[in-house]
Amino acid sequence: MCSEALLEFEQSLAGLSASNELLLNNLELKADLNRFVSPKPAAGPQTLLAESDILSLFAHYDYTGDNAAVCPACSGALQLLTASCCVDYVTQQRQGPGSALERDYWVLFLRNPYRTFLTLPHYSKMAFHQMGVPFQLRRLVWQKLLLVNQKNCYELPPEASMIFTNFQHSYNHRICSQIKKDLGRTFPNVAFFQQPETVDSLLTILNVYANYDLELGYCQGLLFLVGTLYQQLRSSELTFHCMCKIMECESQLRSIYVPALMLETLDQWRRQFCAIFSQIDAALYLHLLSFCDMSVFLFQWWLSNNLIHAPNLSVNNRIVECCLVEGWKVGNFKIALGLLLQNRLILMSFGPGDEEVVYQHLLNESKWGNVINNTTAFFGDLLLSWDDTLF
């Protein structure tokens, strides 16, 4: 049951926040896709998640084993705990979420995400975009959000395991060879992705998906998405199932990877994006249009779901959460717009003849600039500052 304090805060946010249309539409799309899920019979009495369970997850979390968590003070990896600020941050995190409201919200969400989004849409946007999902809960939250349904059932359905097993055969030799090549250059500086177990799991997931979706097959950009999902979910079957659900839920996202539809769909996205861009910042849009081919960087961003060249996995996780909440196409558009606006000063300083410099800047990590130091300002303030009706 939702606490009175949360309901009061939701009402106060309703007077300040913009529309929740994107969040609620995306929720219903996913819930409708998962409407045929059949809950497994309960093995015994079912107990609801309690506040003490949340506190226990924070207290006993393996902070030095998380290769994505960073210290907000120094941006250093918590794995290393090399600075006193990192040690202090972990000590504080072991106490649990920062406020009673935050604890209450995540208890409600993990009990029933569908009902929580419907009841607290404004607070949900704030929790996911401004505060960010607590990394101690991220694995649970992602699974719930990827498989959200009205029946509140989040077990992997038996048919998903059957499909994953049945398609593990007769891999396409050309596709398998290409995946192996790409694995070595995807997140090359992250130790987790160099581990043999991770490499084998990603190879299996992508080969099985190529067998399952013959029209799509394999595209290098998928590896960034599958890798980021697997890094959190740590299950090949679950990652494969979630990948299928993402592609089934948003046919336009799938179309940018299907060879026969890729160029047509990407060009359609470009036209739609430019129409939005011109309304948000006409001066920057016209300036870039005068000497740049925006498809050069936009297509690479979208094919990787903006996960390529992100400064660290913590930012990648925020990107995925933005897309999970508002939809993958909308999320890709918003992040691309945000990156262009973040780089406005430097982009406006270039002109005809500087195209290659612009492309080089926007196609590497430098485009993220100071976002790494304040992800809340980017994901929570900038990306939420635009009217939903634009998208």
Automatic annotation (TrEMBL):
InterPro entries: Rab-GAP-TBC_dom, Rab-GAP_TBC_sf, Rab_GAP_TBC_domain. Signal peptide: none annotated. PROSITE patterns: TBC_RABGAP. It comes from the Eukaryota. Residues 132-327 form the Rab-GAP TBC domain. GO terms for molecular function: GTPase activator activity; small GTPase binding. SMART domains: TBC. One of its GO terms (cellular component) is site of polarized growth. This is RabGAP/TBC. It comes from Metschnikowia bicuspidata. The lineage of its organism: Eukaryota, Fungi, Dikarya, Ascomycota, Saccharomycotina.
